[in-house]
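Students often ask why we bother encoding 3D structure as a string. The short answer is that it lets us treat folding as translation between two languages. Here is a chain of 242 residues written in the first language.
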Amino acid sequence: MGVGLALIRVRPGPGLALVALAWAGLLLVSLPITATTLARDWEVYPALTTPLPKGPRAIVVLAAGRYRRAPEYGGHDTVAANTLVRLRYAARLYRESRLPILVSGGAPLGGHPAAVLMRHVLRHDLNTPVKWVEGRSHTTGQNATRAYAILAPLGIRHVFLVTQALHMRRAVMLFRHAGFTVTPAPTDFATRRFRDRTVLAFLPSGHAMALSALVFHEMIGVLWVRASSILPRPLVRLVNHG
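And here it is in the second language, the structure alphabet:
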């Protein structure tokens, strides 16, 4: 759109065409019918059914951001809504399986590691014990490798992996690459949030645009995982830790 606006004075036809194309693209990805159609192709793992499958020996929960300086919690950091959804489901899995829990997430912007905040919520709000805290990872790939470094020496290589359904495809890929056998335990299915069979499916929505953005984020993440196997290691390391 910026290129189109810059061209309007010198090339009105192409400039206006680019602006119109940009607006059309924004409109398209802001429609619930578009967002949910995209998301369905990424929420590929179904919800677990009971009784739970046998085999996993630990539950691994990934962080998803924090709620900074929460006034209702005394101005202290706590977990963000997406993380809380994962923790709630992990607590349920614990009650059904009694498997130990590993929480994983660092502090890329400073403060207490996300995993420490997750442990606090599980223990004090959800009455669920946490066995291991991995608080140094900043990416899903680091979640996988550092969780493996903790669990593999203990003979634990099969895990329930808890994260949002939309994020699960990439997370499973990375955890399997790290050496785990993974039983996906997805939660918070994005496609269930939208009324995509009514007229509302064709009305622009900020929530739908946010969902489309998450899908594109996952697309780029999966492409990067695949590209990482052929790109020079120094470049991969720079991007992953940058």
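Translate back mentally: The longest strand covers residues 158-164. Keep this in mind for the problem set.
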